[in-house]
Design brief:
It is found in: Cytoplasm. Pfam families: DnaJ, DnaJ_C. This protein is an alpha+beta fold and 301 residues long. It has a domain at 198-290: Urease metallochaperone UreE, N-terminal domain (HSP40/DNAj peptide-binding domain, Sandwich), CATH 2.60.260. Helix content is 31%, strand content 23%. It has helices at residues 5-10, 18-32, 42-56, 59-68, 70-73, 95-106, 129-134, 212-217, 276-290, 297-300, and strands at residues 121-127, 136-143, 149-156, 165-168, 184-190, 198-200, 203-211, 219-223, 230-234, 243-246, 262-269. The strands form 4 sheets. It has a 4-stranded mixed β-sheet. Strands 1-5-4 form a 3-stranded mixed β-sheet. Strands 2-3 form a two-stranded antiparallel sheet. Helix 2 (18-32) runs antiparallel to helix 3 (42-56). The longest helix has 15 residues, at 18-32. The relative contact order is 0.09. Mean pLDDT is 83; it is low at 76-107 and 297-301.
Length: 301
């Protein structure tokens, strides 16, 4: 795989902005989500999209991918990630071992019996849209290289997103010669919302249909938020695409205080079928607005 494959998976140019990448990811993850799309191959497509976004959605991983390809994105050339920052394994293997090789080559006093830290492990955790926003406590099971199975409690912080990871110190492989255990990195994968919500960081977006009458005359409507339903005032003359902001109704900020906002984008729902009374009402509206009467069949004849 070359260093354009991830861009191709998302259908974006290599010079695409982060907003364009996020928009493409939201669209494709919703399209191929296995809970929503049951066609053969949809789940594989979904996993490919997730993998591509985990790299391209992170500026540092993306830079490594652009320069070195998949090995760079996976940490083969070093890199920082997660909530605390760590050096990933892969590519060249354990960098402490690489240092041992240099010591042997250049006479650095290498001690083969010195204590060494164990290998790091990775665990992928799938979260629902709501679990990622509010966090949760759960128990996970994972195996180490020696075949032993471990069960530990994990507290998922509120506000995590796909591709972010949490470091659990000392939960990795056993160390060598009495050295400390490696670490366990829990990588999060968030499912698409079943309620139509989409996220961009701490902000949440929702498309809301309103009737032609509500758009023209204005009204108070109830809209969903991740925190429950709230009242939203629709002013008279609202047009399709109008965006309303609900302050503090988004997701918690992972590294900050408070919540993001929810943005409601309205779409005016134009009726496709009208009964006689509705037609007469609209014809009267047209006549009152334009001063002209809509001609029927006998008028035209």
């Amino acid at each position: 795989m070359n260093n354009t494959e991830y861009y191709d998976r998302l259908g974006v140019d290599k010079n695409a902005s982060q907003d364009e990448i996020k928009k493409a990811y939201r669209k494709l993850s919703k399209k191929y989500h296995p809970d929503l799309n049951h066609e053969p191959g949809a789940e594989d497509k979904y996993k490919e999209v997730q993998e591509a976004f985990e790299t391209l959605g992170d500026e540092q991983k993306r830079a490594q991918y652009d320069q070195f390809g998949p090995a760079g994105a996976q940490g083969g050339f070093g890199g920082q990630g997660g909530f605390g920052g760590y050096q990933q394994q892969g590519g060249f293997g354990d960098f402490s071992d690489l240092g041992d090789i240099f010591s042997q080559m250049f006479g650095g006093g290498y001690d083969p019996n010195r204590p060494r830290k164990g290998q790091d492990l990775q665990y992928r955790m799938r979260l629902t849209f709501e679990e990622a926003i509010f966090g949760k406590e759960t128990t996970i099971k994972f195996k180490r290289g020696d075949g032993s199975q471990h069960e530990i409690k994990v507290t998922v912080p509120a506000g995590v997103e796909t591709g972010q990871q949490m470091r659990l110190a000392g939960q990795g492989e056993e160390g060598f010669n009495g050295g400390p255990h490696g670490d366990l990195f829990v990588v999060f994968q968030v499912s698409a919302s079943r309620d139509g919500f989409e996220r961009d960081g701490a902000d949440v977006y929702l498309e809301q249909k309103i009737s032609f009458v509500t758009a023209a005359l204005g009204d108070d409507i109830q809209v969903k938020t991740v925190h429950g339903e709230v009242k939203l005032r629709i002013p008279a003359g609202t047009q399709t695409g109008k965006r309303f902001r609900l302050s503090g109704k988004g997701a918690p900020r992972l590294r900050g205080n408070g919540n993001g906002d929810q943005f409601v984008v309205v779409t005016v729902d134009v009726p496709t079928k009208l009964n006689k009374e509705q037609k007469k009402a609209l014809e009267a509206f047209q006549e009152a607005t334009t001063g002209t009467k809509r001609k029927g069949f006998f008028d035209k004849l």
